[in-house]
Amino acid sequence: MARTRFHDIHAGTQLLIVAELIILTAIYVIGLEADRSYYPDAIPKYWEGQLLLHFALFVLPIQISVLSLGLYNRKMRETFRGIIRRMFVSVALGYFISTAIYGITPAEVLPGNVREWSCLAAFIALVSLRYFAQSLRYQHLGRQRVLILGAGERASIIERRMRRRSDRVSFDLVGFVKMRGDSNKGIESDPIIELNTSLEAYVFEHKVDEIVVAADERRSNLPVDSLFHCKLHGVEVTDILDFIERETGQIAVNLIYPSWVIYSNGFQSTNYLRNAFDWTFNTTLALIVLALTWPFMLLTALCIKLEDGFRSPILYKQERIGLNGKPFNIIKFRSMTTDAEKHGAQMAVKGDARVTRVGAIIRKYRIDELPQLYNVFRGEMGFVGPRPERPYFVRELVLSIPYYNQRHNVKPGLTGWAQLKYPYGSTEEDSLEKLKFDLYYIKHRSFLLDLLILLRTLEIVIFGKGI
User: Fold this and answer.
1) Which residue range is the domain that position 21 belongs to?
2) In this structure, what DSSP letter does residue 319 have?
3) Are both 88 and 116 inside the same structural domain?
4) Phi/psi at 60 (nearest 5 deg)?
5) Are 208 and 174 in contact (CB under 8 A)?
6) Residue 378 C-alpha from the chain's centroid
7) DSSP, residue by residue, 150-195
């Protein structure tokens, strides 16, 4: 049976979201009844006609904050103490968000300390649920037994890319079946299976749920009749490209062949509704961000001046490649010394000696990106998309990395899928890995995916996961 998920939110996480929604609803109802007991005369005034609004202002900010801080990430490598810390920040953030919304809506704040006590109860209940869910290994819900058809160079990508336990939380790898034509550069540590019987007999005997076709040589080599028989009996048959895309959130550029692109879902070049509202959505969001962050921007400008002198520039412009390969000037707070590129163009690296003390802080929390709101207003960038690169590096990367130019088919963004999924890197290999995530984003591009990326970017900002 095919698995349904919203990008990297799999079945176990979906159940956890529903369970937390039920718990928050129960706390809301209990808080309502407590409020009714202690403030019987105030109930009609505060609750009549506003039950749904108060419910939304309690539940939604907390769950959105939980999502934003990575607590629905199935591959999150965090101790339980770290989960408690993140949950505390999530509930506190949800409380402040609801307080801010109360200030701009006609709804009256609940009497007494109902919201405060409800948030405390929510924190305790959500942490308890996480402990219980982790004890039951909720990440393995819907886990399927997977057999890889192939044990050569193509199949070895699965072993190398999904080596860690956290990479395999949604499936149990039965093994790799050696096929005629497979190269010797294959599997190193996982079991290699030599079939002594038919493929379908092995699949049924070992209760395999999914077969991934990853043979190096497919032409006149695949057991088509056996695959057809397995498919008819409910076994999922998946191409290696689709399997890697589903499990890693990236597209394996080195395995792409034209027919896969042509026949696969996604890569929609035209979405008239999205295009019509793209600038309006991004501009509105930019205005909101500007209204919330202008004090930090002023403070940043002052700190740059204090560190480097009042004659030093606050901002810097740099040419980048945008939509359809059109160059534009990106604007950022200056985070490096004024002579950072006296020896020519260089990619920034982690721990770069050219970064100033103020620059290290604003880069860590992505504050240096805030002036790019100007690029958003001009329509040169959106909030979500591949990060724009400099022309000098684009010319090099286009020659060495296949399909690199395809990332210019969409407008560049302040944040993106690659920024969430891949740590900072400055090598050609890093650029290739980022491209795999960028192509995934381009293929699945949608408003909901953009919203998911924006919410998860908050985790990067709050926990300082910039470079």
Assistant:
1) 11-139
2) E
3) yes
4) -60, -45
5) yes
6) 26
7) --SHHHHHHHHHT-SGGGGTTEEEEEEE--TT--SS--SSSPEE--
Q: Of the candidates 114, 139, 164, which is a domain's last residue?
A: 139
**Residue 64 domain-assigned (yes or no):** yes
Decide if 77 is inside a domain.
Answer: yes
CA 263 to chain centre: 25
Tokens of 104: 């701009």
413-415 and 192-193 as β-strands: parallel, antiparallel, unpaired? unpaired
What does the block give as tokens for 243?
Answer: 């399997």
User: Which pLDDT tens digit goes with each residue over 307-360?
Assistant: 888 888 999 999 999 999 999 999 999 988 877 776 666 766 666 778 899 988
- Which residue type, as a one-letter code, is found at position 46? Y
| Same domain (yes/no): 171, 115 | no
Measured CA to CA in angstroms, residue 2 lies from 84, 235, 237, 251, 399 at distances of 34, 9, 9, 19, 38
pTM for the full predicted model: 0.86
DSSP state of 336: B
The answer to the question of residue 3 being in a domain is no
Q: How many domains does the chain have?
A: 3
Considering the domain architecture, whether residues 112 and 179 belong to the same structural domain is answered as no
* Burial of 424 (C-beta count, 10 Å sphere; 0-12/13-18/19+): middle
261 in a domain, yes or no? no
